[in-house]
Amino acid sequence: MDPTKFLNQESGKKQGKGKKQFQFKLKLNLWTIAITFFVIFFVIPGIIAAFQTLGTSSKENVTQLLSDVKGGKVDKVAVDSTKLTVTYKDGSVKFSTKEDGESFSDLLKNAGIDPSSVKYEVVDQSLPKIIGNILGIVLPILLMVGFFYFILRAQNKGAQDIFSFGRSRAKVFAKGRQSITFADVAGVDEAKKELEELVDFLKNPAKYRKIGARTPKGALLVGPSGVGKTLLAKAVAGEAGVPFFSMAGSEFMEMLVGVGASRARDLFAQAKASAPSIIFIDEIDAIGRQRGKGLMGGHDEREQTLNQILVEMDGFTPNDNVIVVAATNRGDLLDPALLRPGRFDRRIVLDMPDKEGRLAILHIHARGKKFAKGVDWSKVADRTVGFSGADLENMLNEAAIGAARGNNDQISMADLEESSTKVKLGPAKKRLQSDEDKKLTAYHEAGHAVVTHFLKYMDPVHRISIVARGMSLGHTLIPPVGDRTHETKTRLLEQIIAMLGGRAAEEVVFNEMTSGAANDIAQATKIAKAMVVEFGMGEIGPMNLGADMGMGDFGQMEWYEQAQNSQAFMEKVDAQTKKFLDAGYKAAIKLVKEKRKLLDKVSDALLEKETLDRDDFEKIVGTKYQ
Hints:
This protein is an alpha/beta fold and 626 residues long. The protein is 53% helix and 12% strand. The protein has helices at 3-55, 62-70, 104-110, 126-162, 189-203, 205-209, 229-239, 259-273, 285-288, 297-313, 336-339, 355-365, 377-383, 389-405, 413-425, 435-453, 489-499, 501-510, 518-533, 567-594, 596-609, 614-621; strands at 74-80, 83-88, 93-97, 120-122, 171-173, 218-222, 244-248, 277-282, 322-328, 346-349, 428-429, 463-465, 468-469, 475-477, 547-551, 557-561, 611-613. The strands form five sheets. Strands 5-7-8-9-6-10 form a six-stranded mixed beta sheet. β15 (547-551) and β16 (557-561) form a beta hairpin. α8 runs parallel beside α10. The relative contact order is 0.07.
């Protein structure tokens, strides 16, 4: 069976299910109306009559009443329609009734009593009676009309919900609704400048049209998670004096075929009606992936949505006053038709911030927090190489939480150091370890530190600890001294040696191996293989033998090994990788044996203090040379 046809049938079933639910609700409401009608016109009057009967349960027989009148026992009688209220001379009160339409005076005459000898009064209720009769007729009708109105109103709303799948779910931010501006964004100066120009295009279009420049149709923000793509979009919303429509790529998609395209049309229609305006699509890779064979119905729906966006951005209909800003961390997956000029004219790449960028980000997120005078922000920026803007914000927040937990009024450098380690490796765990485990961990981490210290091109050791964090029982932090763009072959080989220093210390000291080196071996193997298959640093030469990414059978991005890689070549890759690892391990063993006395001292210090900073470590092994 054709999968597309099957999914279309499933969509039809879903619509049919919604229609059945609508009919069920309508029948339920009709039954509710009928029951309400019965209660108003039959049950309530019966209850009222019962209460009236209950109130007159001690009524006097009219014959007995007339007999009491003749006997002079009655003081006065109040006549209220058919109801008679009799007050006796002894102060008691009784009730009775007469026939409707018969006057009380006629009743007395028929009983042989002179009406003038009896003190009675007739209560005139002609107007209240008329009003009561009118209300008795009109009020139930009004109640029924009101009840019908609310039922039908709710029903119409439900019917509209069933057929409102195609409407845009975009959030609209008018001028003044977004407090974030470009002043709140740092570390991405080039990207910020590009977006500032887009905002200026919308604010001052005449300045650019005067010299023949056209407004860019769109800007695509590409970068890893946490670098500030969405934050930049919020800043655009705060800076632009035009309506800003924000929508996630996943919000276009539904199982119902055609819904995504309908929402795209509705979104652009709203933006054009409010032009000049900006549309922001977050995580656009959810709908903008490269088109393939599309054998699945859901996939066809995504392609239809993408096709509609392509037409809306650059089709026959002019779209000069609407700019589309999109964000993704998988720019390599997007369809080429979406990336071409005329749709996304600008491709803005955001990277991890450098030292100056980290400093600026730290100053922004430090607002509103109290820091001690000894905080060295330059040192914090050096310490956080590889941190994204989101990591830095989280680090400062964790530092503030840690300071408050310790009942401190200010955030100290120690709080920042602890929070940066926590963000990178996880919180410290007071895991109970035996003395043997502690000693193994201490020598393992000391092996990393000592080997690293005596390698010429490796950065200085920043901290060594045998306090468990995350999945590890200890850690050795070696952050880069500065932002490094290129890696040399010599430095990569030294990284392999440093990673295998822990295993080398275990073998030299205990003549044993532990499972604690598993992650070190995995990282060292990854570097060694990359040197061979990606960087061309092995004996095979400058030839990329790695995995490429291509389109799978179902239109999805898949990894596969290049067909031209013969078995013989792959064997050479494995042999060269093992050669790098073996050389690194031998070098680590040699260094550990040469520096055994220093290794013992560092291990003993770790067992005593659990954590050694750079200054404590270099007091034992000497100052790191470069």
